[in-house]
Amino acid sequence: MIDYQPVLLANIGKKDSHALAVYEAGGGYRTLKKVLGGTSPADVAAAVRASGLRGRGGAGFATGLKWSFIPDRYSGQIYMCVNADESEPGTFCNRVLMELDPHQVLEGIILSCFATAADTAYIYLRCEYPLAYKRLQAAIGECRAAGYLGENILGSGFSLEIHIHRGAAAYVCGEETGLIESIEGKRACPRIKPPFPAVEGLFGKPTIVNNIETLACVTHIMTRGVDWFRSMGTPSDPKNPRDPGSYGPKIFGISGHVNKPGYYEAPLGITTRELINDFGGGVWKGRRAKAAVPGGISTGLLTEAEFDLPLDFTGPIKAGCLGLGTGCMVVLDETYPIIDFLHNSCRFFNHESCGQCTPCREGTRWALELVQRIRAGRGRILDLDLLLEIADGIGIIPGTTICGLADGAAWPIKMAIRKFRDELEEYIKQTNPDGYASTEPALATAQ
Ligand SMILES: Cc1cc2nc3c(=O)[nH]c(=O)nc-3n(C[C@H](O)[C@H](O)[C@H](O)COP(=O)(O)O)c2cc1C
Ligand code: SF4
User: Fold this and answer.
1) What is the CB-side half-sphere exposure of residue 172 using CA atoms within 13 A?
2) pTM of the full structure
């Protein structure tokens, strides 16, 4: 069992953990008072950069570096958009923070706005989280009454307003520029980048988009220091100049076929096996695991043989996955058919494509129809290659789409077919013994 004292989840379990009095009794807002009492915004930004904090929302981009993209000596309006859309399937680590410790989230947002000179923050919250909305709204009211929000906070000269914007829960609203469009009152169709939001974002102004958990980490960096943050995780790989390391604590989720689904905090770099066995209570019903989705369905699949790779920003990539993603894992036991995994993921991404880019709009549809045909017992071995052809051609990585939704659609297909081809071929042969080897054109299947 990992020897680790939770920090992000330290308040969870206390009675009324969402209330200001409880948060303050545990030391809450002391860091804000200290920082506003004498630390400069540049020093906060420098600490975040030195800590090596990387975004917890999925892409793992360096937070301090992103903040530095705000144009130099810019004195106009700057916005902070807090990504609480949490739309990645299987993901619920932002939810626990917002529902059970909203003040931890707010303190992180206030410190981050101070560091980036943002005077307005929007929390973009999915509408399926009504309790999080209620708790955050109440916490904002308490914060304002205590003088932690509004004009001239704690006499520091720094002013900030935080608004909650509730989304209508489309996956693409979590993509940072789709989110910005949605706050502006438009359909959440992602924008072509550049310009990046830090230069031209919400209402055309420089905008930082960060995830809830990323910003919650900022308070702890300022409270406990950069060295504390960097004492956890996986250091950068000197042989890989593109790996800046994976530091700090992370909330991991675990669901699917385990005995104890839930959320758990551990340093980045624990392994899938540790997460399943030490936290998740092992695979359910005494079965073995077949595979696990490392961090949201868009990241792909790890086979059981890959469970000892670290869950940090590079570990899952070494196994061909898209990345660590959100760190919320879904475990599939040995009896679970991979064709069903493929079907669920293709249905999801086809439904969620915003339709702007032809490869994504048409590719996700074709992929779904091929998988439906295989599942309905009319599949051909050739269909697996057609699926791979589609998956290899859609997304930002092959350079054919505006946003990463298409990469997220492609990765489960690539991983399922490349890692479980034998099982899928066997399924096709069993269910379509007369036609599995056919290369003749075949009709699609609607359902
Ligand atoms: C289709 C799609 C959906 C996304 N959904 C989310 C989401 O629900 N929450 C989130 O924080 N980031 C999401 N992201 C990543 C955001 O675009 C952005 O990288 C992130 O909010 C930046 O914050 P971070 O650097 O703190 O992780 C999504 C990206 C894509 C392509
Ligand atoms: S990749 Fe898909 S979701 Fe993203 S902008 Fe293009 S069509 Fe829309």
Assistant:
1) 28
2) 0.96
Question: What is the average per-residue pLDDT within 371-378?
Answer: 96
Tokens representing residue 320 in the block: 């061909």
Q: Do the bridges between strand 249-256 and strand 262-267 make them parallel or antiparallel, or are there none, so unpaired? A: antiparallel
In CATH terms, the fold of domain 20-231 is: Rossmann fold (3.40.50)
Ligand sitting nearest the alpha carbon of 362: 2
Q: In angstroms, rounded to a whole number, what is the distance separating the alpha carbons of residues 376 and 372?
A: 6
Q: What is the DSSP string of 137-153?
A: HHHHHHHHHHTSSBSSG
Question: How confident is the model over 65-76, as a mean pLDDT?
Answer: 95
Provide the β-strand partners of residue 387.
none
The CATH architecture assigned to 338-431 reads Up-down Bundle (1.20)
3 CB-near residues (< 8 Å, 6+ apart): none
Q: Identify the residue whose C-alpha is closest to ligand 2 atom 6.
A: 357
Determine the Cα–Cα distance for residues 82 and 91; give it in Å rounded to an integer: 17
The preferred substitution site among 79, 202, 211 for testing ligand 1, maximizing ligand atoms within 8 Å of CB, is 211
Which helix (H) or strand (E) element contains residue 179? helix 176-183
Ligand 2 pocket residue status of 401, Cβ below 6 Å: yes
Contacting residues for 331 by C-beta, under 8 A, at least 6 apart: 254, 255, 256, 257, 258, 276, 280, 283, 289, 292
pLDDT at 445: 64
Q: What ranges do the domains of the chain cover? A: 20-231, 248-333, 338-431
Q: pLDDT by residue (tens digit) across 380-391?
A: 999 999 999 999
CATH number for the domain whose boundaries are 248-333? 3.10.20.600
Neighbours of 303 (CB within 10 A): 15
Mean pLDDT of 426-430: 98
pLDDT band at 238 (very low <50, low <70, confident <90, very high): confident
135: left (phi over 0), alpha (psi -120 to 50) or beta: alpha
